[in-house]
Amino acid sequence: MDSYELLPHLDITPSGEICSKFLGMNIKTFQEACNYVHNLDYGYNSDTDDRWILFKELKGSCTPKHGVIAGLAEELQIPLYKNVGIYKFTEKIVKGAQKIIEKYKIPFIPMVHCFLEYNNYRFDLTEGNDNGKETSIEEFMHKEQVEPFISRKNEYLLYRRVLEEKLLLSPEFAGISLKIILKAREEAILLLHEKVKK
Q1: Residue 196's pLDDT is what?
Q2: Quick one: how far is CA 172 from the chain centroid?
Q3: 55, 59, 119, 191: which has the fewest Cβ within 10 Å?
Q4: Residues 63-103 pLDDT 10s
Q5: For the chain, which residues make up each domain, given as ranges?
Q6: Is 181 helix (H, G, I), strand (E, B) or coil?
Q7: pLDDT tens, position by position, 168-194
Protein backbone atom coordinates (compact mmCIF):
# COMPACT_ATOMS: atom_id res chain seq x y z
CA MET A 1 0.00 0.00 0.00
CA ASP A 2 1.08 3.60 -0.44
CA SER A 3 2.37 6.15 2.07
CA TYR A 4 -0.16 8.26 3.95
CA GLU A 5 1.86 11.29 2.81
CA LEU A 6 0.17 10.83 -0.59
CA LEU A 7 -3.28 11.38 0.92
CA PRO A 8 -4.93 14.71 0.06
CA HIS A 9 -3.75 17.73 2.09
CA LEU A 10 -7.02 19.57 2.60
CA ASP A 11 -8.76 21.39 5.42
CA ILE A 12 -11.98 19.94 6.78
CA THR A 13 -14.91 22.30 6.29
CA PRO A 14 -18.37 21.95 7.90
CA SER A 15 -19.74 20.14 4.85
CA GLY A 16 -21.62 17.34 6.55
CA GLU A 17 -22.09 15.23 9.67
CA ILE A 18 -18.73 13.47 9.48
CA CYS A 19 -16.89 16.74 8.87
CA SER A 20 -18.64 18.23 11.90
CA LYS A 21 -17.73 15.22 14.03
CA PHE A 22 -14.01 15.61 13.27
CA LEU A 23 -14.10 19.38 13.67
CA GLY A 24 -15.79 18.89 17.05
CA MET A 25 -12.79 16.75 18.03
CA ASN A 26 -10.44 19.57 16.94
CA ILE A 27 -9.27 17.53 13.93
CA LYS A 28 -8.95 20.12 11.18
CA THR A 29 -7.39 18.43 8.13
CA PHE A 30 -8.15 15.35 6.07
CA GLN A 31 -4.73 13.87 6.82
CA GLU A 32 -5.21 14.42 10.55
CA ALA A 33 -8.52 12.55 10.31
CA CYS A 34 -6.82 9.67 8.49
CA ASN A 35 -4.08 9.50 11.13
CA TYR A 36 -6.66 9.57 13.92
CA VAL A 37 -8.58 6.66 12.39
CA HIS A 38 -5.40 4.72 11.67
CA ASN A 39 -4.23 5.11 15.27
CA LEU A 40 -7.48 3.78 16.76
CA ASP A 41 -7.22 0.16 17.91
CA TYR A 42 -8.01 -2.54 15.42
CA GLY A 43 -10.97 -4.55 16.67
CA TYR A 44 -14.34 -5.99 15.78
CA ASN A 45 -17.35 -3.81 16.48
CA SER A 46 -20.68 -4.70 18.06
CA ASP A 47 -22.70 -3.24 15.14
CA THR A 48 -21.05 -3.16 11.72
CA ASP A 49 -23.94 -1.27 10.13
CA ASP A 50 -23.76 1.69 12.54
CA ARG A 51 -21.78 4.39 10.72
CA TRP A 52 -20.82 6.01 14.05
CA ILE A 53 -19.62 2.80 15.73
CA LEU A 54 -15.94 3.71 15.24
CA PHE A 55 -16.40 6.82 17.38
CA LYS A 56 -18.60 5.07 19.95
CA GLU A 57 -16.27 2.13 20.55
CA LEU A 58 -12.96 3.82 19.60
CA LYS A 59 -11.88 0.80 17.59
CA GLY A 60 -12.68 -0.81 14.27
CA SER A 61 -11.72 -3.25 11.55
CA CYS A 62 -11.11 -2.26 7.93
CA THR A 63 -14.84 -1.82 7.26
CA PRO A 64 -15.66 1.09 9.64
CA LYS A 65 -12.20 2.67 9.44
CA HIS A 66 -12.32 3.02 5.67
CA GLY A 67 -16.04 3.77 5.69
CA VAL A 68 -15.63 6.84 7.89
CA ILE A 69 -12.76 8.26 5.83
CA ALA A 70 -14.48 7.52 2.50
CA GLY A 71 -17.59 9.22 3.92
CA LEU A 72 -15.50 12.22 4.96
CA ALA A 73 -13.98 12.37 1.47
CA GLU A 74 -17.46 12.27 -0.05
CA GLU A 75 -18.58 15.23 2.08
CA LEU A 76 -15.46 17.18 1.09
CA GLN A 77 -15.83 16.17 -2.59
CA ILE A 78 -12.43 14.48 -2.61
CA PRO A 79 -12.18 11.73 -5.27
CA LEU A 80 -11.10 9.11 -2.74
CA TYR A 81 -13.16 5.93 -2.56
CA LYS A 82 -13.62 2.81 -0.50
CA ASN A 83 -12.89 -0.44 -2.32
CA VAL A 84 -13.73 -4.00 -1.36
CA GLY A 85 -11.04 -6.44 -2.41
CA ILE A 86 -10.94 -10.22 -2.36
CA TYR A 87 -7.56 -11.72 -1.55
CA LYS A 88 -5.89 -15.08 -0.97
CA PHE A 89 -5.97 -15.85 2.76
CA THR A 90 -2.96 -18.14 3.35
CA GLU A 91 -0.43 -19.02 6.04
CA LYS A 92 1.74 -16.16 4.75
CA ILE A 93 -1.03 -13.72 5.72
CA VAL A 94 -2.27 -15.35 8.96
CA LYS A 95 -0.65 -18.15 10.94
CA GLY A 96 -3.09 -21.05 11.24
CA ALA A 97 -4.65 -20.56 7.81
CA GLN A 98 -2.92 -23.64 6.38
CA LYS A 99 -4.81 -26.00 8.70
CA ILE A 100 -8.11 -24.69 7.34
CA ILE A 101 -6.87 -24.91 3.76
CA GLU A 102 -5.81 -28.52 4.24
CA LYS A 103 -9.04 -29.43 6.04
CA TYR A 104 -11.18 -28.27 3.12
CA LYS A 105 -8.70 -29.26 0.38
CA ILE A 106 -8.69 -25.85 -1.28
CA PRO A 107 -5.73 -23.82 -2.67
CA PHE A 108 -6.48 -20.80 -0.45
CA ILE A 109 -9.39 -19.11 1.33
CA PRO A 110 -10.90 -16.14 -0.52
CA MET A 111 -11.44 -13.36 2.01
CA VAL A 112 -12.61 -9.75 1.96
CA HIS A 113 -10.53 -6.73 2.89
CA CYS A 114 -11.28 -3.10 2.16
CA PHE A 115 -9.00 -0.16 1.48
CA LEU A 116 -9.03 3.37 0.05
CA GLU A 117 -8.15 4.40 -3.47
CA TYR A 118 -7.17 7.93 -4.52
CA ASN A 119 -5.96 8.50 -8.09
CA ASN A 120 -3.62 5.54 -8.62
CA TYR A 121 -2.74 5.20 -4.94
CA ARG A 122 -4.01 2.68 -2.39
CA PHE A 123 -4.19 3.22 1.35
CA ASP A 124 -4.91 0.79 4.17
CA LEU A 125 -5.72 2.49 7.46
CA THR A 126 -5.35 -0.84 9.30
CA GLU A 127 -1.77 -1.35 8.13
CA GLY A 128 0.51 -1.53 11.14
CA ASN A 129 -2.43 -2.12 13.49
CA ASP A 130 -2.52 -5.25 15.63
CA ASN A 131 -4.89 -6.83 13.11
CA GLY A 132 -3.84 -10.48 13.32
CA LYS A 133 -2.13 -10.43 9.93
CA GLU A 134 1.56 -11.16 9.41
CA THR A 135 1.87 -8.82 6.45
CA SER A 136 -0.08 -6.16 4.58
CA ILE A 137 -2.33 -7.25 1.74
CA GLU A 138 -0.99 -6.00 -1.57
CA GLU A 139 -2.60 -8.29 -4.14
CA PHE A 140 -6.29 -8.77 -4.81
CA MET A 141 -8.01 -11.21 -7.16
CA HIS A 142 -10.89 -8.76 -7.44
CA LYS A 143 -11.54 -5.21 -6.28
CA GLU A 144 -14.66 -3.10 -6.56
CA GLN A 145 -15.49 0.47 -5.58
CA VAL A 146 -18.35 0.63 -3.08
CA GLU A 147 -20.28 3.25 -1.13
CA PRO A 148 -18.57 4.29 2.12
CA PHE A 149 -21.04 2.58 4.45
CA ILE A 150 -21.91 -0.50 2.41
CA SER A 151 -23.96 -2.81 4.61
CA ARG A 152 -22.56 -6.08 5.87
CA LYS A 153 -25.25 -7.88 3.86
CA ASN A 154 -24.36 -6.13 0.60
CA GLU A 155 -20.64 -6.71 1.15
CA TYR A 156 -21.38 -10.41 1.64
CA LEU A 157 -23.55 -10.49 -1.51
CA LEU A 158 -20.68 -8.87 -3.45
CA TYR A 159 -18.36 -11.58 -2.13
CA ARG A 160 -20.80 -14.37 -3.11
CA ARG A 161 -21.22 -12.89 -6.59
CA VAL A 162 -17.47 -12.81 -7.19
CA LEU A 163 -17.14 -16.40 -5.98
CA GLU A 164 -19.92 -17.62 -8.27
CA GLU A 165 -19.07 -15.56 -11.35
CA LYS A 166 -15.29 -15.67 -11.18
CA LEU A 167 -13.54 -17.88 -8.65
CA LEU A 168 -15.62 -21.06 -8.96
CA LEU A 169 -15.11 -20.94 -12.74
CA SER A 170 -11.33 -20.89 -12.40
CA PRO A 171 -9.20 -24.06 -12.83
CA GLU A 172 -7.89 -23.69 -9.25
CA PHE A 173 -11.35 -24.29 -7.83
CA ALA A 174 -12.55 -26.94 -10.28
CA GLY A 175 -14.76 -29.42 -8.46
CA ILE A 176 -14.93 -27.32 -5.28
CA SER A 177 -18.40 -26.25 -4.15
CA LEU A 178 -19.50 -22.86 -2.92
CA LYS A 179 -20.55 -24.51 0.35
CA ILE A 180 -16.97 -25.67 1.02
CA ILE A 181 -15.54 -22.20 0.42
CA LEU A 182 -18.12 -20.60 2.73
CA LYS A 183 -17.35 -23.11 5.50
CA ALA A 184 -13.63 -22.38 5.16
CA ARG A 185 -14.38 -18.65 5.25
CA GLU A 186 -16.34 -19.04 8.51
CA GLU A 187 -13.36 -20.75 10.14
CA ALA A 188 -10.97 -18.13 8.78
CA ILE A 189 -13.09 -15.37 10.33
CA LEU A 190 -13.00 -17.18 13.70
CA LEU A 191 -9.22 -17.50 13.38
CA LEU A 192 -8.89 -13.75 12.77
CA HIS A 193 -11.11 -12.96 15.75
CA GLU A 194 -8.96 -15.21 17.91
CA LYS A 195 -5.80 -13.45 16.74
CA VAL A 196 -7.20 -9.99 17.48
CA LYS A 197 -9.18 -10.57 20.71
CA LYS A 198 -10.43 -6.97 20.86
Answers
A1: 86
A2: 25
A3: 119
A4: 999 999 999 999 999 999 999 999 999 999 999 999 999 99
A5: 4-196
A6: helix
A7: 999 999 999 999 999 999 999 999 999
Cα dihedral value 65, 66, 71, 74, nearest 10: 150
Per-residue pLDDT reduced to its tens digit, 125-169 = 999 888 889 888 999 999 999 999 999 999 999 999 999 999 999
Measured at the CA of 116, the angle between CA 20 and CA 65, to 5 degrees, comes to 50
What does the DSSP 8-state code read for residue 104? H
The Cα–Cα gap between 192 and 190 comes to 5
What's the pLDDT at 109?
A: 98
Of 51, 22, 125, the closest CA to residue 10 belongs to 22
In eight-state DSSP terms, residue 194 is H
What is d(CA 170, CA 89) in angstroms, rounded to the nearest whole number?
Answer: 17
Contact (CB, 8 A) for 116 and 122: yes
184 touches 100 (CB < 8 A): yes
Gap between the Cα atoms of 150 and 128, Å rounded: 24
- Sheet with 109-118, strands from edge to edge, namely 121-123, 109-118, 80-89, 142-146
At residue 99, φ and ψ (nearest 5 deg) are -60, -40
